[in-house]
Write a structure and sequence with these properties.
The structure holds three protein chains of three kinds. By secondary structure, chain A is mainly α. Chain A contains 16 helices and three strands. In chain A, helix 1 packs antiparallel against helix 11, helix 12 (232-248) runs antiparallel to helix 14 (262-269) and helix 12 runs parallel beside helix 15 (280-300). By secondary structure, chain B is of the alpha+beta class. Chain B folds into two domains: 32-86, Electron transport complex subunit B, putative Fe-S cluster (3-methyladenine DNA Glycosylase II, Chain A, domain 3, Orthogonal Bundle); 96-261, Alpha-Beta Plaits. Chain B is built from eleven helices and nine strands. Chain B has helices spanning 2-25, 32-40, 53-63, 75-86, 121-126, 143-147, 172-176, 201-207, 217-221, 224-227, 249-253; strands at residues 96-100, 113-115, 153-156, 159-162, 182-186, 191-193, 230-233, 236-239, 259-261. A two-stranded antiparallel ribbon of chain B has the order 1-5. In chain B, strands 3-4 form a two-stranded antiparallel sheet. In chain B, helix 2 (32-40) crosses helix 3 (53-63) and helix 2 (32-40) runs antiparallel to helix 4. The longest helix of chain B is centred in the first third of the chain and has 24 residues, at 2-25. Chain C has helices at 129-138, 151-154, 178-185, 187-201, 215-224, 246-254, 275-286, 317-323, 380-384, 391-399, 403-408, 419-423, 430-459; strands at 2-5, 29-30, 36-40, 50-51, 58-59, 64-67, 76-77, 82-91, 97-104, 164-169, 205-211, 232-237, 270-274, 293-299, 307-312, 333-336, 343-344, 358-362. In chain C, helix 3 runs parallel beside helix 5. The chains are: A mainly alpha, B alpha+beta, C alpha/beta.
Chain lengths: 333, 269, 460
């Protein structure tokens, strides 16, 4: 017969017995909160198609996550909000007019192939949302590069139009000089490059979440305040893009920062914990690499935009960066 | 097309010739018995013999620095084969299997706390002395199961059990258990004492419903002290495996219910 | 004597909820001797003492019942008069098993118990250095901050010169207020202890490290030390965990960084002692009493009346809790020590030792559970680690049983302060994994050493 259990029965664990109460789901929620302004801006500029894309991506990602975990016979991880975040980030990286079935395909790829195949959260070598974007860019090149014009677009009259980066790429040397002039920047849009105000608020063609620099900056400020991200990666990334832009000439360097996916990428994609280095030094190297590869693609590559590829390339060498930048113990020579 | 075929064929011919030459002139003479012995050994590379895998043991055998009966996994048959290859008399080997000397499942032995930490016996044992009331018993965090090369150990209801058919007697689990609970016993022995707590009866009873109290009834029922089937350590009975008891009656008569007839997990995994 | 601010801030560290308000305003209360004491022979770091008594013996208060057994060891004295009931293996607060003397302190009818034994009081001003050091050693004094390193060994750094004597009054562990109360109520004893230690160590500068969340303690120490001669400073540290760690305290007070382990503070010319130890030294020298009692903070949100209790060593946790009014709410966890580095307690029959600084009872809502979520690589543990290690990488290496990789990641430098686990959003058992790696590396080293010794023996 089993003896009587003693009265005092406590939880036995190794120290520490105190916790800062920070959790994965809270972190994911913070990033989602930080993305709300830019999501709202995207929907404001591109209308209902943007809203539908966001809803479809998020729900498909959550569903795929649940199904994958069930199929693998592991506990459900829907509650950590990482699938919601992946869906949201993917949607923000898509043009508003994308056919919804393609968004579904991309979402399934992001969760099933880019994340769960590697073992789920924390194991994936590449950012799932960006992997899915790369997959879609290759599979559905046409729809992925067809941009809806924003509601208040004053540029060439068309339902769809080119992004400013594509316009810059298409410019000849003379035109580049023209649009570098104050008139080109602060006046009416010249040859598809919007003015600084439009660049800042996001009144230009592009992916849903990448257009509004002000909304992105507000979200970034929130993340920095909540200490979800540190300044290292965004600073190194944006500074590299800016300096490269200065040296390369053509359009003002600030245009390179405010167009395309640089802001979204630097604050929200490159800072993805799982696929970026852990040390401060490593983060600076990583951010610099992202900026450099991005600008190399923009300047010399065949794509107008290289932000997502730049981050994916740096994801691949992240373990190497981690290895090079291991911290030295306190007191070690 | 013809050129390609000719090129590939000549590369193949050249390589074959090079290999043939290398085999003839660069080969190292090795005692053929090493290969034969390696083939005769079970190939589990468990390391139970004390050498680096089966190959290491085979080399040591040929060099004459290892006894023929050291392979627990291969047992008598293997030892005889090895002895035949080496041309020596076969040393008698008895197949030994691991035995977890505890039967305090969660439903029988009390837990004094709720352990929350890494699933490892030694670590759990060092956290507030472990969550099991009995400080000698199986914690059930599977350190033994983790090192078993054959997957012969499974943990259920907070207690490790050995599948006798899969166990090769390598002894890795014996070393892995922080409570020193596991023992290699002759596979032919069928009656075991499943307890390792040498404390007095009342203190054992406080923590476990199936702990040995040292009442010596097992000894009495198996023919007394002269029969020598049991030895005692503190208030704990131990089976003398040199001379194991065979009468299954004593199991049922054990008042502590800490004895069992063939407790090995025979049904398989 | 002046008060200065610390100029040196180490990298990392965390800000846990201190919860010191529960017991900080409770003056130290002396607890009556419990009916049964259980005095462990292993109350300090190093070899357990050798038991000198057997069941049935009558012991006096202050009688030596355990003899120092080796270089790093300390003697154990009976905290009360009584009869030895048993000498048996008992669970220690840290989870190990050690010999303990169970003393029945209630005299039978008509029985008289022996009188208290004390050493001859010494006047530290006239006593020689050797006499003082001998007294510290024979009174069984060991570090009262938590680790319990024998003090006499620390105070006798053969061949090495001590430049700074650092008095640890940081008390960075949450809940604990024993050092705070000692500084408030017994600052003069701390001062005497400091002067004795200074005499033993030879002329050296004294730095008293106190965190800035204890302004009353700073004021009290300032007053007591006002007219002390020599180079003495109070260094006010910012409130940051783990300022109580020797390495980090030395850095924060004098800006020196110790070399890699197994180096000791004396290698950078420092000796660190806790304020409680200083007071115990003063008592041992001036009053001749061996170390048989200490202040323990009994606190936590489940305790009816949190208190700072002066209890004999060997008092069972159950008696200590009863003295504080028992539990007002069910406790989910009991902790011996503070919440960051204390030990979980499995039963309340465990008894206090010379190093028990606190006994906490927390309700379910204050207790968190470790989880099995994977690492998300967020780097919080790297930022929090005061030793600037990479707990994330170490933990992954240990989980895949790659102890070599953990060693290459400097796991042996880990001070087990718990900062990494404190901030981990995946609730991983980082500190425990580091501890596991350290244990297996130590076991391997011991095995190698034994093997080498055997080989040397065979060669002879």
């Amino acid at each position: 017969m089993k003896p009587k259990e003693t009265q005092d029965r406590f939880i036995l664990s190794s120290s520490p017995h105190a916790h800062g109460r920070c959790s994965v789901s809270r972190i994911m929620l913070d990033v989602i909160i930080a993305l709300l302004p830019t999501t709202a801006a995207g929907i404001w500029f591109f209308g209902m198609p943007a809203l539908w894309t966001v809803l479809v991506c998020v729900s498909t990602c959550v569903l795929t996550e649940a199904v994958c975990r069930m199929a693998m016979g592991r506990e459900s991880t829907v509650g950590d909000f990482s699938a919601v975040l992946t869906g949201l980030l993917l949607a923000l990286n898509l043009p508003a007019g994308i056919p919804l079935w393609m968004a579904v395909a991309g979402s399934v790829f992001a969760i099933a192939v880019a994340k769960q195949v590697f073992g789920g959260l924390g194991m994936n070598p590449f950012n799932p949302a960006l992997s899915a974007r790369a997959f879609m860019l290759i599979s559905f090149t046409g729809p992925m590069t067809t941009w809806l014009k924003p509601l208040w677009w004053k540029g060439p009259e068309a339902v769809t139009t080119a992004t400013p980066l594509a316009a810059i790429k298409a410019l000849s040397g003379a035109d580049a000089v023209a649009c570098a002039s104050p008139h080109g920047l602060f006046g009416a849009p010249v040859a598809g490059v919007p003015g600084l105000w439009d660049l800042a608020i996001g009144n230009m063609p592009g992916c849903i979440g990448e257009v509004s620099a002000i909304a992105l900056a507000a979200g970034a400020a929130y993340l920095l305040w909540r200490r979800v991200i540190t300044w290292h990666i965004p600073f190194a990334f944006i500074a590299t893009v800016f300096v490269f832009g200065l040296v390369a000439g053509g359009v003002p360097a600030i245009v390179h920062v405010l167009t395309g996916g640089v802001m979204l990428g630097a604050f929200f994609m490159a800072t993805d914990y799982v696929t970026s280095p852990t040390t401060a030094k490593g983060k600076l190297v990583f951010g610099f690499g992202c900026g450099l590869v991005c600008m190399l693609i923009r300047r010399f590559g065949s794509y107008p935009e290289g932000c997502s590829f730049a981050i994916l390339v740096m994801n691949a060498i992240c373990p190497l960066i981690n290895r090079w930048t291991q911290p030295k113990p306190f007191g070690a020579k | 097309m013809t050129v390609a075929i000719l090129v590939i064929a000549s590369i193949g011919l050249f390589s074959a010739a090079a290999l043939a030459v290398a085999d003839r002139y660069l080969s190292v003479a090795e005692d053929p018995r090493i290969g034969m012995i390696t083939a005769a050994l079970p190939g589990a590379n468990c390391g139970g013999c004390g050498f680096a895998g089966c190959d290491g043991y085979a080399r040591a055998l040929v060099a004459g620095t290892a006894p023929t009966g050291a392979c627990a996994a291969g047992g008598e048959k293997c030892a005889a084969e090895v002895a035949k290859i080496l041309g020596v008399a076969s040393a008698a080997v008895e197949r030994r299997v691991a035995l977890v000397r505890c039967c305090g499942t969660r439903s029988e032995a009390i837990r004094v706390g709720d352990y929350n930490g890494i699933c490892d016996c030694a670590t759990a044992a060092s956290t507030a002395g472990g969550d099991k009331g009995c400080k000698y018993g199986c914690l059930g965090y599977g350190a033994c199961a983790n090192v078993c090369p054959k997957g012969a150990i499974s943990v259920s209801d907070g207690l490790a059990k050995v599948d006798k058919r899969l166990c090769i007697g390598c002894g890795k689990c014996v070393k892995a258990c922080p409570k020193r609970l596991i023992e290699l016993v002759p596979a032919s022995a069928t009656i075991h004492v499943l307890c390792a707590n040498p404390d007095k009866g009342p203190s054992v009873r406080k923590v476990c419903g199936v702990g040995c109290m040292g009442c010596r009834l097992c000894e009495k029922n198996s023919g007394g002290k002269e029969a020598g089937h049991f030895t005692f350590e503190g208030f704990l009975a131990k089976v003398n495996y040199q001379n194991p008891p065979t009468d299954a009656q004593i199991v049922a008569k054990c008042p502590a219910k800490c004895m069992a007839e063939d407790p090995h997990f025979e049904t398989g995994v | 004597m002046k008060t200065v601010k610390s100029h040196f801030r180490f990298k990392g560290g965390v800000h846990p909820d201190y919860n010191k308000e529960l017991a900080r305003d409770k003056p130290v209360e002396r607890m009556p001797v419990a009916a049964e004491l259980c005095v462990s022979m292993s109350q300090h770091l190093g070899a357990p003492a050798k038991c000198l008594v057997k069941p049935g013996d009558k012991v006096a208060k202050g009688q030596k019942i355990g003899e120092k057994n080796g270089f790093i060891s300390a003697s154990v004295f009976s905290p009360a008069a009584g009869t030895v009931k048993a000498v048996e293996k008992r669970l220690t607060p840290s989870g190990g098993m050690a010999d303990a003397v169970v003393i029945d302190t209630v005299p039978a009818e008509g029985e008289t118990l022996p009188e208290e034994i004390r050493f001859a009081p010494l006047d530290w001003k006239t006593a020689t250095r050797e006499e003082l050091l001998k007294r510290v050693e024979e009174a069984g004094i060991c570090g009262m901050g938590g680790a319990g390193f024998p003090t006499a060994v620390k105070l006798n750094p053969s061949g090495k010169r001590c430049e700074y004597l650092i008095i640890n009054g940081a008390e960075c562990e949450p809940y604990l207020t024993t050092d705070f109360r000692t500084m408030l109520e017994r600052a003069d004893r701390v001062r005497t202890g400091v002067e004795i230690m200074r005499k033993i160590l030879g002329e050296c500068a004294v730095r008293i490290a106190i965190e800035n969340n204890k302004p009353e303690a700073i004021a009290s120490v300032e007053k007591a030390f006002a007219d002390i001669a020599g180079n003495v400073e109070i260094v006010v540290l910012p409130t940051l965990y783990p300022h109580g760690s020797e390495k980090h305290q030395i850095y924060a007070t004098v800006g020196r960084v110790g070399p890699e382990p197994p180096a000791l503070p004396i290698d950078v010319g420092c000796v660190v002692e806790n304020v409680g130890t200083a007071a115990a030294i003063a008592d041992a020298v001036e009053l001749g009493v061996p170390l048989t009692e200490r202040v323990t903070t009994v606190s936590g949100d489940a305790v009816a009346e949190p208190k700072n209790v002066l209890a004999p060593t060997g008092t069972k946790y159950r008696d200590l809790l009863a003295f504080c009014g028992g539990l007002k709410e069910p406790a989910a966890k009991a902790i011996s020590g503070g919440t960051m580095m204390g030990f979980a307690v499995s039963n309340l029959d465990i008894a206090t030792t010379k190093t028990t600084s606190g006994l906490l009872f927390l309700t379910k809502k204050r207790v968190f559970q470790y989880g099995s979520q994977p690492c998300i690589n967020c780097g919080r543990c790297l930022r929090a680690c005061p030793m600037n290690l990479n707990p994330s990488e170490i933990s992954k290496a240990v989980e895949s049983d790659d102890i070599k990789a953990a060693e290459a990641a400097h796991v042996m430098d880990c001070i087990e302060c718990g900062s990494c686990s404190f901030g981990c959003p995946s609730y991983r058992t980082l500190t425990q994994l580091c501890r596991r790696a350290k244990a297996s590396i130590r076991a391997r080293m011991a095995a190698e050493k034994a093997k080498a010794a055997e080989a040397a023996k065979a060669a002879k």
